[in-house]
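Subject: Sanity check before I submit

Could someone independently write out the structure tokens for this chain? I want to compare against mine line by line before I put it in a report. The sequence has 179 residues.
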Amino acid sequence: DTARMATGLKRVYALKELEPYGRPEVVPALSALADSGDVETRRAFSRVLSRVQNVKAVPLLRRLAGDRDPEVRRGGVYGLAAMGIPATELYLQNLGGTDPEARRFAALGLRVSPDSAAAPALAAALGKPDSLVRYEAVLALGAIPGSEPVNPLVAALKDGVSFVRRAALATALGGLGRL
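---
Independent answer below. Compare away.
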């Protein structure tokens, strides 16, 4: 109740208290917080909701994944990816964004719910400066069936970071049986 009725910092702290619980029953009661004009409230709500592993949270997570604030989007994308929810359009939107964490979570989402339509965007992500984004993009490309991801994976074998190269090698070798 405090999280719903309070304002400003009181609301943020009340939401923070709910975070460890991630209870699905809080979702309907707090759904109005997704539309709050206060960005800190939306950020706190996004963090809480991203940990609620329940289908009741999916519509709100989709809404948060499209928020104008990068930190709010990050929580929405992470929550969808953590549950393996297919949301290719939202993942692609965030993969092309400027927030490295949201890009990484978007690539994770595309790995757990692979879509061949995402292959070109994932291949482009291999050129991003953040090695964790490139790593997740390699793994996501490896989850896509068929031969389309092969060329970007071969190119990733030349990445400047060893764990990205190792992931590309393991992914490419693991994918040979699918061709």
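---
OP: Matches mine. For the report I'm noting this point. DSSP finds twelve helices and no strands in the chain.
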